[in-house]
Amino acid sequence: MTLDFLVINTYTANTLGIADISIYDTNPPTVTSPSMSFIIPGYTTPVVLPFTPLSFNTYNSLTLGLSTSGQPLLPLPDGVWTATYSVAPAQTNFVTKTFMRIDIIQEKYDSAFMKLDMMECDSAIRTQSKVTLSTIYFMIQGAVAAANNCAVDTANKLYVQADNMLNNFIRNNCGCTGNNYVINFY
């Protein structure tokens, strides 16, 4: 038996999708106590939940214990997550992965990007905005790459820097003079 899983994009900040891609000795698999454990950014105590083998499992703020019944689902936090899939005996049959959730910052980035063509800026300022958004995008992707390679500190630093730049960009409704483009690219 070889345990493995994929984190699947659900295209919403409210859910997390995990697909089981394990290779089991029997079909259907005869495993005992399949579970998925999460260490959620901002929390130290792992959340352990049932996991359905050979299936697509979805989790949200209610199932993860971040909200209570009757409340609307909350966006799941961005940041480095640690997920461990295990079956009994859990001490020897498990696989752990770290990954960076970027759904909240991605929604914010998408909104800023969509405003780019609608801004009434001159050509140099519009070009500077594209350069700034490209820089932010590369920082977000760098955070994802760092998390995928267990470089948690680097991932967090890149994420925070991208988020600060994005907030500044949005706050200034273009927020540039065109000087960076003129100096570095013209």
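Second entry:
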Amino acid sequence: MDSTPEVYKIEKLTFIILPEKIVVKTSLGQTFYLRPKAHYWRRRLKLIESMIRLEEIRTLNELSMWCARGNIEWVDTQVLYKY
């Protein structure tokens, strides 16, 4: 399996498709990745990959509609610490 990431820039979003996850970057500098809540939601993640390749997901609102009511989590990649 090729481990080279696929990068799609669609409007104000950049999608990076890796073998095990999808990373999303916004034009405002936010970065998160998509994670299924349970193993059987991995099929939905593959469907989201296909929709990105077809450029059918152009906004965060459209992405959220494909995330199965929260069964595909958006995990922030920046960890903030308060001291």
